[in-house]
Amino acid sequence: MGMQSDLARVRHLGSAKEGTHHWWAQRLTAIALVPLSLWFIWQAISLGGLDWVAYKAWISHPANTLLMVMFVVAVFHHMQLGLQVVVEDYVHGEGAKITLLVLNKLLAVLLGGSCILSILKVAFGG
Amino acid sequence: MATGERPLSPHLQVYRWQITMLLSITHRITGVGLSVGALVLTYWLAAAAYGPGAFERAQSFLNSWFGILLLLGWTFAIFFHLCNGIRHLFWDAGSGFEMSQVRASGWAVIIASVGLTVLVWAIGFGMMGGA
Predict the structure, then answer these.
(1) Which domain holds residue B75?
(2) Measured between CA atoms, how close is A38 to chain B, in angstroms?
(3) Are A79 and B34 in contact (CB < 8 Å)?
(4) Structural domain tally of chain B?
(5) C-alpha dihedral sign at A10, A12, A16, A18
(6) What ipTM score was computed for the predicted complex, to two decimals?
């Protein structure tokens, strides 16, 4: 096999020509979501009855701003990867499948972006 | 292509239900359910960005009986998906493949996710009652 490394050999393999990237990204986001989702649940318990002023005070704290943005990024990336597999498993018509895969990816970016903007707007707003 | 005469593998329904297949499909169902939860998380964060009035409406929706029912479902879904996800990560690392281990970790996932859901809501209602 000459000068190729093991990694170079498996890259771009498989029917989607993406090698192990999907699998690996799903695991990485899963590992990130273990502490992040536990943190979010812990925070959400005390956020339940809060009004907007208290929410603003909470989201303005730099640690909360950062962790919420990281949580949202991990959630929507992991969600997109998971829903992609569900579509690939159950939707067999080629047109419907491609449409749903495109929508899945675009909506994940749109909704994740909306969440980040919403977090930052309140955190940095006057 | 003549596909009609090919033998088919037995359909899912002929198998006896086992904890392994129950947890496998529940992992997928909770994942899809949590995607709907991500929509509500987006709505909640966007309402806060829109202003105090919109945020108050979002909070009162989530505190209605229907909102609490949804939150209860998502609490279980997130704990189940989290616990069973950790079970998957152990398999990815190459351990826990014996059938006895697979069943034991499956029961551990069920007990932990129900237990954590009850614990979180006990704390939540305790804080509401105390406030």
Answers:
(1) 19-130
(2) 9
(3) yes
(4) 1
(5) positive
(6) 0.90
